[in-house]
Amino acid sequence: VSYMVGKDRIIFATKEDHETPSSAELVADDPDDPYEEQGLILPNGDINWNCPCLGGMASGPCGEQFKSAFSCFHYSTEEIKGSDCVDQFRAMQECMQKYPDLYPQEDENEEKSSKDLEATSEEAPAAKEGKGSS
């Protein structure tokens, strides 16, 4: 069973599918592949969305928003590069906030550490009281 979600095809495998030996053939990497061993920017100036350096950002649930914001920044000719891309970056940020497990926010870690400190300081007096009463 398979169905399309956006540009991706989701395929469900059955137990029987796994019991049958695979007929897949491994193909050697093509040294002429323009995306192989390239950096973030291709020789023609385009963005290499397949670059491992992007960490999959271009293909996640917010991939389109990421591509839009990153493209805008890359091609920006403003004096302050990217200053014309605020709306695209805001849309990307709003999308990422819907998927906190995939896109952890830096300020979340600060909140957790401050909550941990509060919990520790609340527990400390209770522990001291317990020792004093015995």
Q: What is the CATH architecture descriptor of the domain at 37-97?
A: Orthogonal Bundle
Percent helix among the residues? Answer: 40-55%
Biggest sheet overview: 2 strands, antiparallel
Q: What is the total tally of β strands?
A: 2
Apparent shape = extended
Report the total helices: 4
For the record, give the distance between the C-alpha atoms at the N and C termini, rounded to a whole number.
Answer: 67 Å
The CATH class name of the domain at 37-97 reads Mainly Alpha
Give, in order, the helices and strands: EEHHHH
Low-confidence stretches: 26-31, 121-131
Give the SSE map.
Blueprint: E1 2-5, E2 8-11, H1 15-19, H2 63-75, H3 86-97, H4 106-133
Describe the model:
It is found in: Mitochondrion intermembrane space. Residues 125-134 have a biased composition (Basic and acidic residues). A hairpin with a 2-residue loop joins strand 1 (2-5) and strand 2. The relative contact order is 0.06. This protein has helices at residues 15-19, 63-75, 86-97, 106-133, and strands at 2-5, 8-11. The radius of gyration is 24 Å and the shape is extended. The protein has a domain at 37-97: Helix Hairpins. The model is unreliable at 26-31 and 121-131 (pLDDT under 50). It is 43% helix and 6% strand. Strands 1-2 form a two-stranded antiparallel sheet.
Provide a brief overview of the structure:
With 134 residues, the protein is mostly helical.
Task: List its salient traits.
single chain, 134 residues, mainly alpha, Helix Hairpins, two-stranded antiparallel ribbon, 4 helices, 2 strands
